[in-house]
Amino acid sequence: MNKLLIRKAGTLLGHQNPIFAVENGRVPNVIFTGGNDKGVVQWDLETMKFERILCPVSSSVYTLHMVAHSPLLAIGTRDGRAKIVHSSTAQPLAVLEHHQRPVFDIKSFETKPELILSSEDGTVSIWNTETFRLLYHFKIAEQTVRTIAISIDERWVVFGTKEGKVKLYNAKDYSFVEELPAHSMPVTSLCFSPDGRYLLTGGRDAQLNVLHTSGFSLAKTFTPHLFTVYAISYHPTLPVFATVSRDKSIKLWSSDDFRLLRIVSFERGFDSHLLSVNSMVWNTYRNQLVSVSDDKKVMVWDVEWPQSSE
């Protein structure tokens, strides 16, 4: 069998400190990155160059999220705020102030105008994306709520906590449903498969759990990395998903049977990240994977499914 083809398309340089977040823009060739710097950076994947500082920030950026059906970028920061900025005009539109501790994740719905923020304070807050008024807030855990995932049919919202718990809520009214199979250490990543069949959870225990969404029973568990699994993301069209880790590697897996397809790391001969890989995003402009790291670099990868040799 031919291997999945991976080639580095380029490295984007300019950040002076570790990068924690990356997000696609509304224009296909645009991405945004943020981290322990003084601004959110906009890059052009066509020219592979820096475009501009979209907006300044007063504290570290932990998460970036394009609000569904809008040109608005939500920026979650260490000071507990979320800044809403127009991604084209760079106009600041709102500052969501509620949490007293860092905001670690932000997600929005396709079917209703609501934005979810999760925080180190153990709570989540729900905001209206048209008025940016606070709608609800409630406690999920005693410590950090690190990550959020919304099911493909938008029936469920799942939260991952520092205690290693995975908590399932009804997305309609935010009522608690149940605790799902958990991790022995903090949950750091959550992702639903595009076909809606699976929920994947990753943790600081270096484990990846695969749950059936029909009942949320455990389908499979394995160890994809040596250290924390910081992100899980499915390719938009190929039967592939990627994971990134504190072990400095990017790994590509078959979404059909969870086989390991490729390892992208310096040790495997790639001109890759030399420190923790903190986040990634699949970009549809040229079907590329974009990864960000503690090494202050944004790396862009071409990923291609091999043609049949028959």
Automatic annotation (TrEMBL):
InterPro entries given in the database record: WD40/YVTN_repeat-like_dom_sf (IPR015943), WD40_PAC1 (IPR020472), WD40_repeat_CS (IPR019775), WD40_repeat_dom_sf (IPR036322), WD40_rpt (IPR001680)
Pfam families assigned to the protein according to its UniProt record, in alphabetical order: WD40
Keyword Oxidoreductase: no
WD repeats by residue range: 12-53, 96-137, 180-210, 222-263, 270-304
Keyword tags: Repeat, WD repeat
Key word S-adenosyl-L-methionine present: no
PROSITE patterns in the cross-refs: WD_REPEATS_1, WD_REPEATS_2, WD_REPEATS_REGION
The protein's name in its UniProt record: WD40 repeat domain-containing protein
Organism: Parapedobacter deserti
Source lineage: Bacteria, Pseudomonadati, Bacteroidota, Sphingobacteriia, Sphingobacteriales
